[in-house]
Amino acid sequence: MDQENVSATLTVAVPAAKVFAVLADPTTHAAIDGTGWVQEAVDRAPLTEVGQIFRMAMYHPNHPDGDYQTANKVQVLDPPHAIGWLTGTEKDDGRLEFGGWLWRYDLAPLGPSETEVTLTYDWSAVPQSIREYLQFPPFGPEHLTNSLHHLAELVSVR
Fold it and tell me: Which run of H or of E encompasses 130?
């Protein structure tokens, strides 16, 4: 595969600021996740600045530990237009390591009460050493679509 990102787009009948607020709240990420891997937010503070770290409790049956934790670093924060983060791990010594993949949501207002939301998973910065033992993307494209539908359901009831 030459392309090193996948994306999906969905229009939701909610203003961009409301969609952004939900995405900037780590406590909503488990409900949005289309893979079922995100279990809950460890760090529950809203995402407010580039460089902010937030951790998520995860589960994946093929992970050596099953249950594990990710450390995510906010890379893009442009309310209410874009938000994105790198996913990595925290080592025993507290050092953070990121694998090079980025989750990003781009929000395009289509009027006062409608937003086009594009979710992109980009692994173009993943080094070869990681590609030797992880397949990219680690899920099918339907997971991005599922995530956007979960987001649409969540923002419509908030």
Answer: helix 128-131
Q: How far is 153 from 156, CA to CA, in rounded Å?
A: 5
Q: Give the pair of three-digit tokens for residue 44.
A: 């529950």
Assign residue 128 a region (left: φ > 0; alpha: ψ between -120 and 50; beta: otherwise). Answer: alpha
Counting every residue written for the chain, the total comes to 158
Identify residue 69 by its one-letter amino acid code: Q
110 CA to centre of own chain: 23
Task: Give 46-59 pLDDT, tens digit per residue.
Answer: 999 999 999 888 88
Confidence (pTM): 0.93
User: One-letter amino acid identity for 155?
Assistant: V
CA dist., res. 77 & res. 53, Å (int): 13
